[in-house]
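Figure 6 in text form: structure in, sequence out.
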């Protein structure tokens, strides 16, 4: 089984991604690292521990960056609700505690221990990994693969923070820039494909009478209401679960390698992931982008995996 670390800013789709990864039974999840993002870090941490409790798993969780690499924090309460997971687990009491090790240090330790066998699944801002690379640059040669949910590449103008910017990159563009330029094996699962995997009420109803039905239904209600306002239909994009889906089955997505950089200066396009499709910059390709997705096959696998 692949040895993975999941780096999360647990809002709704992060929670679904964690459950998908666990219930796939195909991943050796070494730990989950938390990062400020969709909601503040204390919310992220509490949500992560609740999701692990719901799944009945004792996977260690490591607290990460409280704020971005350089800039001020931004959050997405309007999408993820007051607590980040649609208040779906308000009544849950969690006794599980966080590990003492800081997330960036856990990433460093794991890179040394599992040299080249380690996959990082990054579904929040990239602050923790940027901090780890800053502290110990040598780990860039020890991490096997980094799969990132972030950015918008071919479909510029359809961002979710600015017209050209996606939240995870926008929330810490400086950290993303650091990560993209360290020579890592990076695959970027961007809005170009995640906006093609929409979960609807019909999908949720396929989970009726299963372990996760109530949580998925309650957690995604506000998320789908946001989709209704945005698209005119009750639906929500499975950004983070698709990122896990790629790690489980790379054939779900097509990939092509190009040079990708991150805009950190312009107020009009801060956080934009700029892909040099025509090689105009003369730079070596550094990121595998995902131009296509088998959305039907992914949705079938995602729902089937949670259908316990």
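Output sequence:
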């Amino acid at each position: 089984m692949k040895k993975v670390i999941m780096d999360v800013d647990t809002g709704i789709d992060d929670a679904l991604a964690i459950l998908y990864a666990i219930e796939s039974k195909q991943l050796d999840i070494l730990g989950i690292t938390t990062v400020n993002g969709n909601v503040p870090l204390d919310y992220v941490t509490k949500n992560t521990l609740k999701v692990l409790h719901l799944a009945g798993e004792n996977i260690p969780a490591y607290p990460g960056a409280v704020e971005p690499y350089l800039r001020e924090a931004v959050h997405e309460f309007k999408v993820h609700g007051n607590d980040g997971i649609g208040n779906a687990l308000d009544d849950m009491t969690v006794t599980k505690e966080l590990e003492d090790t800081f997330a960036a240090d856990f990433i460093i330790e794991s890179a040394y221990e599992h040299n080249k066998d380690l996959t990082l699944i990054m579904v929040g801002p990239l602050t923790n990994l940027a901090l780890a690379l800053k502290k110990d640059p040598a780990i860039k040669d020890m991490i096997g693969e980094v799969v990132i949910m972030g950015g918008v590449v071919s479909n510029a103008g359809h961002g979710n923070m600015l017209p050209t910017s996606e939240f995870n990159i926008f929330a810490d563009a400086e950290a993303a820039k650091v990560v993209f330029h360290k020579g890592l094996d990076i695959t970027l699962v961007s809005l170009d494909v995640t906006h093609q995997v929409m979960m609807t009420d019909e999908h949720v109803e396929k989970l009726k009478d299963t372990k996760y039905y109530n949580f998925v239904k309650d957690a995604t209600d506000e998320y789908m209401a946001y989709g209704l306002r945005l698209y005119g239909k009750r639906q929500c994009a499975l950004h983070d679960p698709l990122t896990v889906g790629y790690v489980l089955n790379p054939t779900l997505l097509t990939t092509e390698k190009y040079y990708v950089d991150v805009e950190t200066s312009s107020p009009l396009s801060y956080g934009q992931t700029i892909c040099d499709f025509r090689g105009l910059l003369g730079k070596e390709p550094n990121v595998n982008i995902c131009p296509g997705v088998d959305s039907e096959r992914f949705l079938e696998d995602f729902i089937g995996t949670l259908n316990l």
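Caption detail: The CA atoms of residues 224 and 230 lie 10 Å apart.
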